[in-house]
Amino acid sequence: MTAPKADPLYVRYMEAFSASTLHTRDCASCQHCGVGAPIYKAFAKAQDAYQDRQSVKRRS
Hints:
Layout: H1 8-26, H2 36-59
Helix pairs in contact: 1-2
């Protein structure tokens, strides 16, 4: 039996979440620093895309 194929959108979302979490843990100024801002922006964008798709699925 093979495992189901991972949803690429979900994988990107979780990778962005992990990067954001790790950076926030280690950086006192996190979202406002030059490194943290793009990490957080990527996470927010991935989260929005995933949640938008989930919302569409629920309405169908």
